[in-house]
């Protein structure tokens, strides 16, 4: 087992945000995290990445509780791209991506050849090499999103967590990004709003509603008319394509 969470609960003040959430992700597979706005997807990703401590429950990587891991060791292993990820304004694209190398570098050490190669490779993966010397400040929302993903890839994680990574991307770059995540072979957890993309690219789906897990399984078992009506308040039908894939048609 790569990453697992057991009975996670978390809240702020008196507000309970996540209740008793458990999940397991097999190495090299993609778990899609679904749920309406405010259902707790981003909060869960922050707990899984160790940015927040749960009030109850634990997160383990290969059986080891992340609460006992050093930050640097965790950062070498796990990368999270948050929604609306920001960075200092006065930097180039290459410098932003180089930040992903921080956990791999000794304090005050300069960039090594391995760092430069990892940055270049990450820029290539998100189709942003032509922008390497551009200022971060001048980028569009979608370009910034791709640079933040390159920064996470430069980190060379084994677990990659992406919070709505297709936000701001045009359709070509949405599909390119999801195909890239599929090809990487990392253990990935991806919060998505597009249910058809989730069904196309994820091995399993976990659905949150008001901070609780209401479904967890393969896409075809999870995305039923009943679930879409109960959780997302939409009615839908399914179109079965000739290649066997099933698409949700919203009514
Ligand atoms: N630091 C915080 N302080 C107070 N409330 C918070 C905090 N973080 C999250 N919340 C609340 O927890 C709930 C879940 O938020 P979260 O961002 O995890 O949901 P989400 O499923 O990612 O939503 P969306 O799809 O809109 O991005 C929301 O009601 C949010 O207001």
Automatic annotation (TrEMBL):
Family matches, as Pfam families: ABC_tran (PF00005)
PANTHER family, per the entry: ABC TRANSPORTER ATP-BINDING PROTEIN (PTHR42794:SF2), HEMIN IMPORT ATP-BINDING PROTEIN HMUV (PTHR42794)
Keywords on record: ATP-binding, Nucleotide-binding, Transport
Organism domain of life: Bacteria
CDD domains per UniProt: ABC_Iron-Siderophores_B12_Hemin (cd03214)
Protein family (similarity comment): Belongs to the ABC transporter superfamily.
UniProt-recorded Gene Ontology molecular function terms: ATP binding; ATP hydrolysis activity
Coiled-coil intervals, chain numbering: none
InterPro entries xrefs: AAA+_ATPase (IPR003593), ABC_transporter-like_ATP-bd (IPR003439), ABC_transporter-like_CS (IPR017871), P-loop_NTPase (IPR027417)
Protein name: ABC transporter ATP-binding protein
Domain (ABC transporter): residue spans on this chain: 3-235
Lineage: Bacteria, Pseudomonadati, Pseudomonadota, Alphaproteobacteria, Rhodobacterales
Organism: Paracoccus haeundaensis
């Amino acid at each position: 087992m790569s990453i697992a969470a057991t009975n996670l609960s978390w809240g702020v003040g008196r507000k309970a945000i996540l209740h008793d959430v458990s999940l397991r992700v097999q190495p090299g597979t993609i778990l899609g995290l679904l749920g309406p706005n405010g259902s707790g997807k981003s909060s869960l990703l922050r707990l899984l990445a160790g940015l927040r401590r749960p009030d109850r429950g634990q997160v383990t990587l290969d059986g080891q509780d992340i609460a006992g891991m050093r930050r640097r060791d965790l950062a070498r292993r796990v990368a999270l791209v948050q929604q609306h990820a920001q960075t200092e304004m006065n930097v180039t694209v290459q410098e932003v991506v180089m930040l992903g190398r921080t956990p791999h570098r000794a304090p005050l050490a300069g960039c090594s050849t391995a760092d430069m190669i990892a940055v270049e490779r990450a820029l290539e993966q998100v189709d942003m090499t032509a922008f390497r010397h551009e200022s971060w400040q001048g980028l569009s929302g979608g370009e910034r999103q791709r640079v933040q993903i390159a920064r996470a890839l430069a980190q060379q994680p084994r677990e990659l967590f992406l919070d709505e990574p297709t936000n701001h991307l045009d359709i070509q770059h949405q599909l390119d990004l999801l195909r890239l995540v599929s090809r990487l072979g990392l253990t990935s957890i991806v919060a998505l709003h597009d249910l058809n993309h989730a069904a196309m690219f994820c091995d399993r789906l976990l659905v949150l509603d008001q901070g609780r897990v209401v479904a967890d399984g393969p896409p075809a078992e999870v995305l039923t008319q009943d679930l879409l009506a109960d959780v997302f308040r939409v009615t839908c039908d399914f179109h079965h394509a000739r290649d066997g894939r099933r698409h949700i048609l919203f009514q």
